[in-house]
Amino acid sequence: MKRYTELSGKYLSRRLRRTFYTLLGVALAVAFITAIMITFKSIESSEIRALEDSVGAYHGKVEKATDSEILDMSAHVLTEDVGIQKIAGFIDFPEEKASLLIEEADGLTLRLRGKRVTNGRLPEKLGEIAIDTFAAQLLGISSKTGQRVSLNINGNERIFEVVGIISTAIQESSLSRAFVSVSAQEFSTIASKSEVVKNVYFTVDAENKTLRIAAQKVASDLELKDRVRYNGSLIYHLETLSPVNWPAVVLGLLVAVASMVSIYNTVHISVLERIREFGLLRAAGATAAQIRKVVLRESILVSVFGIPIGLAAGVLLSFAVALYAGFRLTGLDGFAVSITPLSLVVGAVLGFLSVVFSSLIPAFRAGKISPVEAMRQYGVESTGCKIRKFAAGESAYGEKISLKLAKRNMIRNLRTTAISVVSMTIAATLFIAFSYFAGNFDTERLARGVVKSDFSIRVTGMYDGGPNGKTIEDLQSIEGVETVAAAKFLTGRLLSEYEDPEMESKTYVTVPDPQAGMRVTMVDQSGKYMALLAYNRAGIELMKSKVISGLIDLARMTSEPLVVIDVENSNRHNIKAGDRVLLRTYYLTKSMVQLPVNSEFIVGAVVQELPSVAFTVEGGILLACSEEIIDRLRPEGNDVHLTMMDYIDHYSYVDIYLRRGANPETIEPVVEETAKRYRNSTFLSYSQYRKETENAIRTLSTLVYGLIAIVGFIGICGITNTINTTIILRRREFGILRAVGMTGKQLKAMLTYEGLIFGLISAILSVVLGVILSYAVYSLLKTEIGHLNWSIPWVGIVLAVVGTLAAGVLTTLASSRKVTSLSITESIRAIE
Question: By 3-state DSSP, what share of the chain in percent is helix, strand and coil, each rounded to 5?
Fold first, then answer.
């Protein structure tokens, strides 16, 4: 039986222009879907890599592991990677409150700890070392290879050559630990004179949701539960990572829908063009199924060529996005494109499904065409009513008749009208919604949400040195500086309601367990996690101008137990001025037992905001007080080994406010140089941060509008193709209208009205849907993006309305130019 499959290729080659439009739509859709999937996956992967560089890539760590424990861990079925760090000794730097550890570690162990060789190599023989950047800082040398350095290891002075530079893991640096790596041969020489400590870093082979359970299972099976420390930050991030990247999926589906509408237009019109051809095939014996296959095969053939082109273009586009906007979108220096098979498969599958689904309805319609229907005059039928009106002399009211005919034509061709309107509405609706989102980025509020002052220095590590009183005086003496608000940092818990008489005597964490040889820790879950900022007098004075309720008096703040709370924390935790609260801090005895220290405070005032931008854990609370009050929290007695108040030997937050008219560009280098004196310090400039924010928003806006432009382009291609083919099919109608008296000018007016009605309907729908979608975006994001306010996106609405009206008129006129230029005789001829 004849299959008629060769007709698909013949028609595609015969209608090259329409084939090109369809191929372009498929390729663009696949390219953009692929680029979206790759870009979002790259952002996700880059964020994970940045976190691993900060806290390490390990899932669990066992300190002081034995050789048998290492072997058992390596053989465990759930264990994936095992890295062994061997430490032979250390060198103390008391002035820096830091230690330099001598270790042997391979590349895998470094990677699991969030470190890597940035220059040179790892040591391979005697006399060679590799140092991390923190070690270079402690040794007072530059981070370069080829240098020689003298180290006193276990009483032996040795000269080493630096052959490698290793990055510093932020977590290790925050614990004031620097590392020097030596070769295995060197290590064996050193280890013979000291006790070797072996730390094991391991990862488990499990799904993200079960990483913690799998790591705990390894520790439990090997009876190491009490000695394993888990990488909580990384595990939590991976556990909360959605298995489906919904933003990418939603954007991909939007592109797929726009593509489906465009392809449906093209295939539907191509079926209308060939009604007579399909009727003749049916008369010659072709079945409905064979006709459907002809139409579907055409779409599949286009997909075979369009999808590979789209995939290649999508990969190139993702690299362009990474090059242009990678850092600005993520703030990550190490942003890199991550191409996964899944991204390519999703792009190809969505593109293919777009073609197949958009071709199904036209294919079934083609299969239903009967030979009798095909023999009739086809195309857009003209009505005797119209012709009689022209014959009766109503052409004197040309504009009125043109408008009336335009409306009747659109009603009669309702399906084609609906498809074209949907194409334009989708693009315009998305444009309005994204213009609202992009236009409501308040860079002032965004920047002030990170830096309230002109310059800020932050040193929040417990073991890091930081600015002291002398530093604050030096900063205050800089010409142009008005005030310097400095705050020390203390952590603990806050109780707003307490009636437990035994609370003072409770021990919340641990007593030694002789059998386990370790402390068993109990977590105190009472109250709220608290971050307390203890300000100098300048900081207290700044808060006086921000008071909403209560009173801030410098004399009382520095002599009485008063705290200040900002309005956000006040509303969130329902704590008002005058409330009595209990602050609980902790200290460790020499026997390493942690005991609470409780101090009663009164909320003196609620302020609009604090002078510094500081954060606490989710659900925690942020408070401020005077630094003179902090010393009252330090426990008395000789049994105090360590307190959480060890933070207070330096200021953790220093905010510099300039005088009006001062030049920040001349002051910034001095403040930045001051910040560089302190390890793990962060320097922030308001003006610089605001510029970076504006650049990031500009980049995001460009990408967003680029998305809308591509979706709109796909839609316009479909609209142009639909209207172009519809007008060609109506050539006979146009010829008859001109034969009974319609002028070329009136014909163009009628088509212009049709395009205007297309645009007007699309504009009305897109405005309504765009405002609804904008408000939905606001409702979903207002709690996460504090600067986002609701406002009707008038600029986006105006541009969308103008764009849809222009698109409707211009596409119609462009498509009608060839038809209106034909003579009456040519127009009335049969269309094949």
Answer: 55, 20, 25
Amino acid at 727: I
630 within 8 A of 648, measured Cβ to Cβ: yes
Question: Under a CB-based contact definition with an 8 Å cutoff, are residues 494 and 584 in contact?
Answer: yes
**Among 779, 97, 18, 137, which Cα is nearest to 436's?**
779
175 DSSP assignment: T
Sign of CA pseudo-dihedral 712, 714, 718, 721: positive
pLDDT for position 487? 93
pTM greater than 0.70: no
Residue 779: exposure state from Cβ atoms within 10 A (0-12, 13-18, ≥19): exposed
DSSP secondary structure string for all residues of 460-488 = --TTS----HHHHHHHHTSTTEEEEEEEE
For residues 347 and 258, give the distance between their C-alpha atoms in angstroms, rounded to a whole number.
15
* DSSP three-state, residue 267: helix
The amino acid that residue 309 corresponds to is I
CB–CB of 100/93 below 8 Å? yes
- Residue 774 DSSP SS3: helix
Separation CA 830–CA 832 (nearest Å): 6
Contact 405, 757 (CB under 8 A): no
Angstrom distance (rounded) from CA 24 to CA 314: 13
Token pair of 804 as six digits: 């849809």
Cβ contact 324:699 at 8 Å: yes
Residues with Cβ within 8 Å of 371's Cβ and at least 6 positions away in sequence, in order, are 279, 280, 282, 283
Query: SS3 string of 7-71?
Result: HHHHHHHHCHHHHHHHHHHHHHHHHHHHHHHHHHHHHHHHHHHHHHHHHCCCCEEECCCCHHHHH
Question: Confidence band (pLDDT; 50, 70, 90) for 26?
Answer: confident
Q: Please give the pLDDT value at position 108.
A: 92
202 close to 222: Cβ distance less than 8 angstroms: no
pLDDT of residue 672: 92
**Amino acid occupying residue 454:** D
Do 266 and 23 meet the contact criterion of CB atoms below 8 Å apart?
no
Among 258, 41, 246, which residue's Cα sits nearest to residue 709? 258
H/E run at residue 176: none
What's the angle, vertex CA 234, arms to CA 34 and CA 675, rounded to 5?
A: 100
Task: State how far the alpha carbon of 634 is from the alpha carbons of 36, 583, 631, in Å.
Answer: 54, 12, 5
Residue 713 has pLDDT above 80, yes or no: no
Element of type H or E holding 739 = helix 731-739
CA nearest 406: which of 804, 734, 803, 805? 734
Query: In whole angstroms, what is the distance from residue 518 CA to residue 515 CA?
Result: 8
Task: Please give the Cα distance from 254 to 429 (Å, whole number).
Answer: 11
